[in-house]
Every structure is written in C-alpha cells, then in structure tokens.
Amino acid sequence: MSVGDVVYAAYERRLVRRLKRAELPRHVGVMLDGNRRWAKLRGKDSKSGHQAGADKIATFLSWCEDAGVEVVTLWLLSTDNLARPEAELTPLLEIIEQAVSDLAATGRWRINPVGAAELLPERTAQSLRASARRTAHVEGMTVNVAVAYGGRQEITDAVRALLLQRAAAGQSLEELARSLTREDIAGNLYTSGQPDPDLVIRTSGEQRLSGFMLWQSAHSEFYFCEAYWPDFRHVDFLRALRSYSERHRRFGG
To answer: Model's pTM, two decimal places?
Structure first.
C-alpha cells in the first residue's frame, strides 16, 4: 500500500466518524453525469464510458446502504437522450438493461423503474419491468431507476393521470379546478408514496438540474462534484453526506 493510499484511508475513516446517522438523508437522487467525457479523456468510445458508469452503480448503492439511505434515485437516461443517434442509443440501452438486471439479481434492493416507459423500445421496457417483478418482495433499499425520465414529462404524466381519474369518476373540469391540490399532483408522480429526495448529487462539475425531479426537489439540498461518474469515490460520497449534514434545512422558511 502506498503512502497515498494510507493517507486516503485515514481521511476516509475520519469522515465516517464525523457523520451522525440521524443527520443523514433518507432519499438520495443522483445524476450520473460525465461518462462520455470520462471515455473521451482516455481515448475510448462512448460505449466504454457508459459501461464504466454502469459498473460503478452497485458499489455506490452499497455505500448508500451502509449510510442508512432508504431510497436512491439513479438518473440513467433522460427523455432528451432518446434523440441521440441510434448507433449510440442502442448500446446504451443494452448497458442499462444489463446493469438493472444485474442489480435485481443481487436480491439486495427493490428496483422501481420511473420514467415514460412508452417512449422506450419494448425490449427495454420489458427488461425493466422484469427486474422490478424479480425484486418486488425485497425489503431492502428502494432503487428508482430513472430511464426515459424528464421532470417536465413526469409532471405532464401526473396531471394527465389525474385528469383521467377524475373524468372516470364523473368529475367535471370545473370541479377539479376548484378542488385541485398539490397533494393531488404529487400522488400521481412516478415516485408517489416515497419521501422527496433530501440530497441530490450531480457529478462531472455541471451545476444545473437539467429537469431532474423538478417537483420533488423543491426543498432538496444539492451537491455538485467535479469528478466524472466513473471516477466518483467513496470519499466523494462521504463529502456529500458531510456537506448535507452541516446544512440547516429551512424547507422554504
């Protein structure tokens, strides 16, 4: 073990000791950004970058599990990404299918696909549903896999579902307009019934939400990390938790 490894391990242990479990997030959202740039820096193709990013996921979930996180939302593919050239999109979808299937095969986490499944190729949608069925009985951490996900799309889908429900119950638009509440819309989001994300992490140095969990992140804390997702380390995660634990959350107050 090198001197650098020893110093890193000591720093990591110090961060862990300073974290108080009661002050840690229940729900962590993650924007797994920078896979293609990671690959480009190494003279590799995009597929290699996406695969490296997929290979990081199980390790990251183990870190979350150790920290007592109850729900993790992984943004794997946005609705905008669906417009990528087929030569890039097809292998990316295959990597996502395999990555989610591998997570399900561990039997450790409950897989919950979130997104506009109707926009996906049927093979991908079926694969994600199969992973969800395989883990429906699991009582461990819930892992939302956001594929074909966009915040605006989610809110649109929630409002559409609400309108259809109320119409089926015989309620007029005027009656719905008078009675509509935030809870009505929240109850039809992809993550209905889950706590909103306490902490949202984005890797690669970008400092914007890009539509990730627009509704749910109203009171979230954000942590932006310079590392590309394949290079995201345990110490980076611990720093995110430390930053979160040191903030005084006002929830809009």
So the answer is: 0.92
